[in-house]
Amino acid sequence: MGEHLKNQMKEKQKGFIAKSIGITELICSADMATGVKLGVVCGLYGGAVTNLGSPEQRHTWYLPVTNLEFTGMFAMTERGHGSNVRGILTEAHYDRSTQDFIIHTPCVDAQKMYIGNAMKGNYASVFAQLTVDGESQGPHCFIVPIRDRHGVMYPGVTAIDMKHKEGLHGVDNGILIFDHVRIPRENLLSKFGGVSADGVYSSPIQNKSRRFNSMLAALTPTRLGLTVQAMAGMKLGLIIAVRYSHSRRQFGPKDEDEVKIIEHQTQHLRLMPHLAATLALVFTTRFAAAMTDEALCVGEDLESNRSLQALVAGLKAYSTWQNIHCLQDCRECTGGMGFMMENRIPALKCDSDVFVTFEGDNVVMLQVVVRELMAQYTRQMGTSLVGGLIKNWTNSVSDSLRTSCLGFNADRVGDMSFLLKALAYRERVLQRSLAARLYAKVEKKREPFFDAWNSCLHHITGLGLAHIHRVTLEQFALAKERCPVEEDRTLLTKFCLLHGTSLVYQERGWYLEHNYLTPSTSRMIRTQLLELCRSVKDEALKVVSDFNFPSCCIQAPIAGIANPRAQWAFYSAPDHTHSASSAAQHHRARTASKL
To answer: What is the pLDDT of residues 60-119, one digit of tens each?
Structure first.
């Protein structure tokens, strides 16, 4: 672990991100607060130093962290500015006479808030508006000492404990206030800009807006870690709920044994789509990690890789929202046992809830996705407005004709190609209609762009989710084709079909409005969803077993993990091989009796 953290300081490390997400998932499965605290110290603070600092600064400000000499924190969010980092109010003025930066909190809205590790950390990577000789250079990142290694606060720094939260009680969140705190000139992380001793500002990127975007883009890998943390919570919840559903019995045919609750249609209908979505996120996150590793290995400026930024932002939004819905269903599907803290699901829910706004509100993340989609659309249309409108009209007619064929060709509903085309169609129509709406508002009605964009936010968030839905299904489909074991490939194919069917089913109203589905094909989608959930419910035990979480991480007695403090909650762990074979025999027997 220590060696891996030291590798973070090296550039062009092959596979570093992929390995990091594996470590993150394992730690979060054991304790989410510990995983988040590690993310704050190594991912956020460490990411700021290693991605925004010089090689010398990495050795000064991050190498000691890997040796456990001190810890850090990440101070970007303010009381008045969360997602809008460009508008932060904390000040950093350069004093040429002393060659110091003066870090100052000028008002209440400039107080750094929700800062993880604020009550224990020694140094903070603080984002502040840099001013040199009266000229603002925009937000930059500074290393500010908070307390010494004995816990004594440095002069001018105030840390206020924010105390009780819904979850993540092992993470000490606090408020940081700076009263004209002086730090050496060398404490400005200088990869994207620095100040000479005589007070001359220089940067390899002259454009302030692009420089700011480059700074934020360099932190893209840390956002991917949040998707992994959300996935860890989903996997744990599903392991517990699926195992319990195969152990607990309730109701059954008259004069016969009660059946496992997984046999009840509403039980597997609630859990199986979440399991399919989790698998889709696993493969898509691996794809994003590979893209990030490749970009970093070749020394690519992540600011220019807008498609990667959009993918990571979209994954963050989709995975964290999916986590909320998944854990709630896991809680309900485990009844009263799922309400008990010993069985972990309540804690997972509380610890994960903040993820939807942590490191960027999800609605803002979807706007990052759509801005890139609109930029791609503009490039595809070309510079000629008339030519672009003609191409737009031609594509609309083509989609209308294709809609008629797909809507009535119901025998294709069970094909992966049908599902992929359906998701691509929805994304394409939403993208094209949004472009038309924005053009009409800005170019024809002369509305300010902010007002035009704001009036389309519902459309925008729908497009952002449609995009990430399509990407997750595509990556799932590619992953199953690459699976070398035929038995596993067959199982993955079922779950991939389930994921695609579930996504289309969720938006069946939209598809009916656009005549993509007829009422009969919509009913077939519903029937297919029900049948796929039934067909994979027993094999789900194998899938959650293959998540390969050790018992010490699962911990829940209802999942077959003995706990002397809660013997009343223990259920023997079901055998997934026996369960699958027994279910097959039971299904064949019932089918034979019907015949």
So the answer is: 999 999 998 999 999 999 999 988 889 999 999 999 999 999 999 999 999 999 999 999
The total of other beta-carbon atoms located within 10 Å of residue 487's CB is 9
Q: Tell how far CA 159 is from the center of its chain.
A: 29
Contacts (Cβ under 8 Å, ≥6 apart) of 244: 333, 334, 337, 338, 558, 559, 571
* Whole-number Å distance between alpha carbons of 142 and 125: 5
First-to-last alpha carbon distance for the chain, in angstroms, is 60
The sign one gets for the Cα dihedral 382, 383, 385, 387 is: negative
pLDDT band at 505 (very low <50, low <70, confident <90, very high): very high
Q: Residues 109-146: pLDDT tens digits? A: 999 999 999 999 999 999 999 999 999 999 999 999 99
Q: How far apart are CA 513 and CA 325, in angstroms?
A: 26
Residue pair 144/135 in contact by the 8 Å Cβ criterion: no
Helix axes 220-245, 345-352, angle to 10 degrees: 160
**Residue 510 and residue 409: Cα distance in Å, rounded?**
18
CA angle (558 as vertex; 554, 561 as ends), nearest 5: 45
State the pLDDT at residue 176. 98
Residue 449: burial class (beta carbons within 10 Å; 0-12, 13-18, 19+)? exposed
Token pair, residue 548, equals: 């390969």
- Going from the C-alpha of 414 to that of each of 245, 420, 423, the distances in angstroms are 28, 11, 14
Query: In this structure, are residues 37 and 170 in contact, taking their beta carbons and an 8 Å threshold?
Result: yes
70: nearest Cα among 34, 121, 118, 33: 121
Rg over alpha carbons for the chain, rounded to the nearest Å, is: 26
Tokens of 93: 């003025």
Q: Out of 166-175, 237-246, 358-367, 411-420, which region has the weakest mean confidence (pLDDT)?
A: 411-420
Query: Averaged over 207-222, what is the pLDDT?
Result: 85
Q: Phi/psi at 281 (nearest 5 deg)?
A: -70, -35
**Secondary element (H or E) of residue 95:** strand 91-95
Structure tokens at 230: 């959300």
| Residues in contact with 554: Cβ distance below 8 Å, sequence separation at least 6, in sequence order | 29, 236, 239, 240, 344, 561
**Helices (runs of H) and strands (runs of E) counted in the chain:** 22, 11
* CA atoms of 281 and 231, how far apart (whole Å): 8
3-state SS of 335-388 is: HHHHHCHHHCHHHHHHHHHHHHCCCCCHHHHHHHHHHHHHHHHHHHHCCCHHHH
| Strand pairing class (157-161; 173-178) | antiparallel
Q: Does the pLDDT of residue 388 top 70, yes or no?
A: no
The band of 411, judged by pLDDT with boundaries at 50, 70 and 90, is: very low
- In this prediction, residues 385-391 reach a mean pLDDT of 45
The C-alpha torsion from 85 through 88 and 93 to 99, rounded to 10°, is -40
Instruction: Return all residues near 261 (Cβ < 8 A) that are at least 6 apart.
Output: 245, 248, 249, 250, 267, 333
- The two beta strands, 112-116 and 91-95, are unpaired
pLDDT value of residue 445: 94
Chain centroid, CA 208 distance in Å: 28
β-strand 173-178 against 181-184: which pairing, if any?
unpaired
Amino acid at 457: L
